[in-house]
Amino acid sequence: MGNSAKKETSARARQTAILRAIFDAAFERFGPRHWWPGETDEEIVIGAVLTQNTAWANVEKAIANLREARMLSLKALDRAGESEVAQRIRPAGYYNLKARRLKALARFLVERCDGNLSRLRHADPAALRADLLQVYGVGPETADSILLYALSMPIFVIDAYTRRILARHGLARPNASYDELQKLFQSNLAPDAPYYNEYHALLVAVGHRHCKPTPRCADCPLYRAALFATRRSHAEAQRHTRPEVV
DNA sequence: GTCCAGTATC
DNA sequence: GATACGGGAC
Q1: Which residue's C-alpha is at the least distance from the C1' of B6?
Q2: Which domain holds residue A182?
Q3: In angstroms, rounded to a whole number, what is the distance separating the alpha carbons of residues A22 and A213?
Q4: Which positions on chain B have an atom < 7 Å from some protein CB?
Q5: Footprint on protein of nucleic strand B, Cβ below 7 A
Q6: How far is it, in rounded angstroms, from Cα A162 to Cα A181?
Q7: Which of A165, A200, A219 is nearest to A51 (CA)?
Q8: pLDDT tens per residue, chain A (246 residues)?
């Protein structure tokens, strides 16, 4: 092996070690998170649309409304009128928009698997992802949430918290693309759906409680862990994200 | 960059 | 009252 190849290999091993350290530190504090908190795979798909840029507490109300109206299934949503769906999901916000998105996704999945998601469990993840991205209202995070949480495929979900946490620890550029961040995880961690599942859930927990727009680093479980792995970049990131806190 | 929108939390 | 939320389309 040449010198540059060796360097690449050790850089990759280091990245892997850092990513594992972050998982371990977060898991010790918050895990296991038991995500996705849906009862059925269809409920997870529906929740994936409802939770777009929306707090989960509000999504739960919308899901409860759909359940009460017997509309918490892909076939039911496919049959239902858009304005009826919109009224039911009001608590989740963006209700007109999300009603159209739910209808589009329900149509696609009824067409694809008769609304029976278990039939997709052995589909090719990359191909299915490409198809999902063609559906109105399904972007990368929603598509990947479906693949990972409803279909148990080893696809890493990136969200706003993930981006923020990585950027603040100097592991990614603040404006890194979704695909870039996903590649960081998937090329450094073995494909493992349960591990990816737990990892994303843990990042959300860290983001929600500590890595907020105004960060609370003091008792963050990643503070010591990341300091150990990337002392310099963490300190650097801190300078830019915590102007008033040491 | 702007729009979509109700709800919780400070 | 202001901020933030488990994004995506245009």
Answers
A1: A93
A2: 10-34+157-241
A3: 19
A4: 4-9
A5: A 53-55, 57-58, 61, 90-91, 93-98
A6: 8
A7: A200
A8: 677 776 667 888 888 999 999 999 999 999 899 999 777 999 999 999 999 999 999 999 999 999 999 999 999 999 999 999 999 999 999 999 999 999 999 999 999 999 999 999 999 999 999 999 999 999 999 999 999 999 999 999 999 999 999 988 888 887 899 999 999 999 999 999 999 999 999 999 999 999 988 888 888 999 876 655 455 555 555 554 443 332
Q: Are both A199 and A115 inside the same structural domain?
A: no
Asked if residue A4 belongs to a domain, the reply is: no
Identity of the residue numbered A243:
P
Spanning CA of A65 to C1' of C1, the rounded length in angstroms is 30
The total domain count for chain A is 2
- Amino acid identity for residue A212 in this structure: K
| Distance from residue A159's CA to nucleotide C7's C1', rounded to whole Å | 9
Measured CA to C1', the nucleotide nearest A164 is C6
**CA of A87, C1' of B7: distance in angstroms:** 16
Note if the bond before A191 is cis, omega within 30 degrees.
no
Domain presence at residue A119: yes
